[in-house]
Amino acid sequence: MGLPTTNHDPGFRITRASHVVLHVRDLAASRQFYEKVIGLILTAEEGDALYFRGIEEACHHSMVLRRGNAPACARLGLRVFQHHDLERLKAFFEAHGCPAVWVDEPHQGRTLHATDPAGTPLEFCATMPMVPRMITKFSRHTGGSALRLDHYQVLTPEVRKACEFYTAAGFRLSEYIAPSGTFDLRGVFLQRKGNPHDIVFFNGAGPRLHHFAFLAPEVHHLLHACDLAGELGYGASVERGPGRHGPGHAMYVYMRDPDGHRVELFNTHYQIMDIENEPVGWDPSDHAISFPWGLPARQAWFEEATPFADVAIREPQLKPKPLTLEAYLAK
Fold this sequence. Notes:
The protein is of the alpha+beta class and about 325 residues long. It has 2 domains: about 15-130, 2,3-Dihydroxybiphenyl 1,2-Dioxygenase, domain 1 (Roll); about 150-315, Roll (2,3-Dihydroxybiphenyl 1,2-Dioxygenase, domain 1). Helices cover about 20% and strands about 30% of the residues. The chain has helices at about 25-40, 85-95, 160-170, 220-230, 285-290, 300-305, 325-330, and strands at about 15-25, 40-45, 50-55, 65, 70-80, 100-105, 110-115, 120-125, 150-155, 170-175, 185-190, 200-205, 210-215, 240-245, 250-255, 260-265, 280, 305. Strands 9, 10, 11, 12, 13, 14, 15, 16, 17 and 18 form a 10-stranded mixed β-sheet that branches. An 8-stranded mixed β-sheet has the order 2-3-4-1-5-8-7-6, covered by helices on one side. A hairpin with a 6-residue loop joins strand 14 and strand 15 (about 250-255). Helix 1 (about 25-40) packs antiparallel against helix 4 (about 220-230). The protein is globular. The relative contact order is 0.17.
């Protein structure tokens, strides 16, 4: 069994990861964290909802926080290029036996709610209201100075099924994790916008949202975010890093917000737009790739994640056994 191949002409055009919708218990605490530490811009506060965007984003929101009784992710948002792509996308989901319905969402054009075969709840739209970019309003930059939403990582017991579905929808596989000499997929990096990933699936109990990631301008913004997290009482929430990823070489830091949602700030990407770029595989047992320097992540980083609202969690047949910090120190 080889790698799933991309359908480059599925009849619709998904363009990028767009926005994440989260349930939080304390809007005030979440607002302080995302404004001061991550550096997002508050676009609107409406009743029990906050709408944020990155400093270079010109669309209304890339993150929505809604007050809820328990932390959860409601939807992962993606954009399509034009409105007629939504009609074709709805037919695609239905042809694959996946539910898809039209909904009305504030500050978005026509919106489609759908669920992928792995159970991930998704939200697609083509347009949002435009707002001023804050990229040259330097007095508004704080914390990590988050530029824009870049990608999501989802834990699922069905990595190959997810990969087959998304490549059929036009996503390209940029990187994959499998034991050497096999295509036993343990992780897949899938992209639409020309850099390594818009959505990532890793083997694990799920579907659950492992993290969402914002691009930051420079390495010092990652450190500044950590300093502000410490000053504001979130120091223990700096969960992993600063460190460096392997194949993508980006510098990163992972933090947990007041409700435990995991957010990544990272500083760069490589380009993968050209058709001759083949997927790059790496072996999970090669720790020089997974963490080229420093220590491995804590067990909680591998196992804890945000549940999707009202979505049942399933265990994988093969439970992952990553090298954790606890196991490393016990050697």
